[in-house]
Design a protein that fits this description.
about 325 residues; mainly alpha; 10 helices; actin binding
Length: about 325
Amino acid sequence: MKLLGLNLIGEGNDSADDSFAKRADCYYQQRPQLIALLQDLYNSYLSLADRYCQSLAKTHHHSALSIHFADIHREDLDRGGDNAIDSSDDAESSLSYQPPLGQFHHHQAKAGDPDMIIADLVMKTVECDMILDELEQLERRGVESSRKMELQRSLLDVLEAERLILLNENARLGYQVSELVEENQGLASESTFMKRKAADLARCLLKMREDHRVFVLSRKLEELQGQIQGLEKRNREYYEQLVKHDEVEKKRNNNSAKKVKGFKGCCFQVHDGVFASSSSSSSSSSSSAAWFSSSGGSAGGNFAGVKKKIVQHGNNGSGKGLLERFKKFEIFPCGPH
């Protein structure tokens, strides 16, 4: 690149008599090479300015120009890195023949060479292009950062909306949990109440069964008591009838005894031939007792008919032995009270 620059400078000196249009055409044709050469020259210039500032710093004579060049060089070092340092070393070795900075500016101001003016313009345009490029990069970075910020803001908005939704959902779930807890408590109390009611119903059922049994037994007892009372009533009636019958028989026996006193030792026969003698008195008494039990309470007239048929024998003709034996038979199931 340095050799190309020297060749271009030599060609420019050889063609000094050419017109400005030819030089401009040559410049535009060789613009990429010139831009690279000017970038190299710019870096070399910055390195020389830095060295000059360092020499001034050693002599403790700082100036505003040295500070300005030092800041520019530091920025360039931050951007370029080690390439700028290497290029500055190369520029120092290749441009060691040039005059000092003051003499260079003095010569530029004194001579007013159009090539130097064009070089300055090219350097300014290069600087402008570099600055514009940096500005474009900064703008791109700003746009990207703004896009990223917008995306982050949108993400934050989405996250905030999701957070609010989750908070609402959490609150709703909390309300549902509280409602379920209350419902569970109500169901637990209701279950205990139902258990108590079931126990009460079981006790009531047992009591009803016992009451039913008591009722059935009481009904049976009442029926039995009614039967007992009926039997007692019938027993009383039978006993009264028997007592009346005994009284009537006693009266009749007394009357008959008075009538048959003169006929001792005589025998009377039954009309149907049931009893023939006094030896068959026991069998006749048993048959008469069976007939009386089957008659069922109408013993008044029937007993009188049987009495006429019975053969009276012994006991002085009174007939009391047979009557006493008849009374001793168990005719009725229940005795008198």
